[in-house]
Amino acid sequence: xxxxxxxxxxxxxxxxxxxxxxxxxxxxxxxxxxxxxxxxxxxxxxxxxxxxxxxxxxxxxxxxxxxxxxxxxxxxxxxxxxxxxxxxxxxxxxxxxxxxxxxxxxxxxxxxxxxxxxxxxxxxxxxxxxxxxxxxxxxxxxxxxxxxxxxxxxxxxxxxxxxxxxxxxxxxxxxxxxxxxxxxxxxxxxxxxxxxxxxxxxxxxxxxxxxxxxxxxxxxxxxxxxxxxxxxxxxxxxxxxxxxxxxxxxxxxxxxxxxxxxxxxxxxxxxxxxxxxxxxxxxxxxxxxxxxxxxxxxxxxxxxxxxxxxxxxxxxxxxxxxxxxxxxxxxxxxxxxxxxxxxxxxxxxxxxxxxxxxxxxxxxxxxxxxxxxxxxxxxxxxxxxxxxxxxxxxxxxxxxxxxxxxxxxxxxxxxxxxxxxxxxxxxxxxxxxxxxxxxxxxxxxxxxxxxxxxxxxxxxxxxxxxxxxxxxxxxxxxxxxxxxxxxxxxxxxxxxxxxxxxxxxxxxxxxxxxxxxxxxxxxxxxxxxxxxxxxxxxxxxxxxxxxxxxxxxxxxxxxxxxxxxxxxxxxxxxxxxxxxxx
Length: 582
Ligand SMILES: [Zn+2]
Prior knowledge:
This protein is an alpha/beta fold and 582 residues long. Helices cover 52% and strands 8% of the residues.
């Protein structure tokens, strides 16, 4: 008795047995059932995805003694001869080795001949059809243009883009999917069970991943592994037989990165080389491992991973401590390594450098995180400074805290959600939301609010309470208070308090502008009414100063902001800095 290799023995014989291509097989079955089969099909998809197998099943479906039937019997003479590859009605041509015009011409001559069976079909399966020469394609095209009623062409290709459009347009096109490792492992498990082979899931996945989407390759590899290890196969045996690196190596590599343990990293490479492992293979594996971690990080790893259940869970927990951005940076480093590793003289050295680079990598800290930390720090400091004074002022509820005004994007005075704190005055004094207010101010329409001089807060009152205001400000923010020392209240009108700064204190003025909301909050608590604050520069040198018109002033401020790169702007704001020289 001769041994039949698994790929042949377990070749699907019915549409149902074709793995992972039901979108094709169901459609074909429906077409056969309805008697609406086309004259030419194009099956495209990666190698080993079941194109030729499906073509043969379709041939049986049409020529079976029970047929045409969506479920060929596989027992009648027609079915059996097709399964054996001896049917005179099914011709398989490998275009890779028969790519010339002569072959296609002789094919055309054969097409004219009838079929061996009445009502039967002649089925031509042309594999790797993209390999045909242009002349051969032309000859094929003529045949496709006027095919005899009993002839069906099934063209198969892994490279659809190399098939001329004139051919494509005459075919019904089916896309075969790459078979996932999950599906391949599942099919291998069924085969192993029926063959009486003992093999754990981990080992099946090792084979499936190595087969890279090709079922036929996976079955050949299973053959190879069984030849090596016998009927009881372990994952270890698969690794040894196929030269697959232990997944554990990659987990240990990322462990070393996480622990910043350079010794562990170098030992790992030592071990890899000692076992005769290939550096390029390791780089590829590590890249895939990092990609798996990233997928876990982004979508939890329920889909998109070619891993066994155990490895999937392991990846998920392993990915946890890595920030997404760090994984992306690591992938960049390893993918550079993987790209270059084939060309370098000392691949081991390059691997070591890359791994040490990963280990030395500082974790990414986003600007937002930094700013948040800074905000928290500031709040804590503020609390500590304010506590001993026991100020009778109501402790501010946290939602009324100013929008962190040092954010690069959020201009404090543009957030309408930030309501003024509860005022002692009747609600008519509460200014409208900021956005509207600004709009009306720009349109310079007469304000509906009575002038402030006739209202409860006049310049006089502000002057009287100025020291108290400055004191409160200092209690909450020393730097803000220090800058405010340079200011003098100059006017109150239209619910706006204008604070004058001497030209030499331009920097203080701009600082107050940036922290305006904070200042306004404190002033509102002292005065019992909320006033908008505008900082005005006073004194000579008008050209070098920002305009005193508040609207222009604001625009000028914005302009200087946009001139400076956002990152620089952020640094400036965090450290209360200014640019000395550009
Ligand atoms: Zn049959």
